[in-house]
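One chain is below:
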Amino acid sequence: MRLALYQPDIPQNTGAMMRLAACFRVPLEIIEPCGFPFDEKRLKRTAMDYGDACELIRHVSWDAFLSASRSAGRRIVLLTTSASSTHLALDYTSADTLLLGRESHGVPENVHAAADSTVRIPIAGDLRSLNVVIAAAMVLGEAGRQLGWFNQLILK
C-alpha cells in the first residue's frame, strides 16, 4: 500500500501527507512538478520531525510514475469526487497505490483514465470535497482495517 500525490499545490498538505505516510509506514510518492519549490528545507519545516520517518519517492512526471507503478504490478486507486463507488465498496490489496489529485484542480482526464479503480468519499451534497490529507487518511484507514494493519501497529 502506498500514497501518491499528483502535482501537489500546497506544501503544508504535502508535509501533512508525509506525516500520515510515516505514521502508517507506507511510502509516499510525489508526482512532479509541484506547485511550490520542492526542497529539503521547506519539506522539513512542513513535515516537522516526521520527514525522516517517511519513505519519500519522487517522480519527475506522470509518465515516470505510471511506468514505475505498472512495472511493479501496482493497482492505482484514484480518489475522486466523480467516482460512482464509495471508498467502502472497494476490496483493497497491499499492492494498491492511493492516488490523490492537486488541491486546486484534481487530475487531468488522462490520469483519470489510467486509474485502475476510482473511489469517492460520501459527503454532504452541497459541498465540494474534503482536504486531500483528510481524504487520504479516511481511505488509508479503511484499507488498513481491511488488511488487518491495526493489529500490527505498536500502541503507546
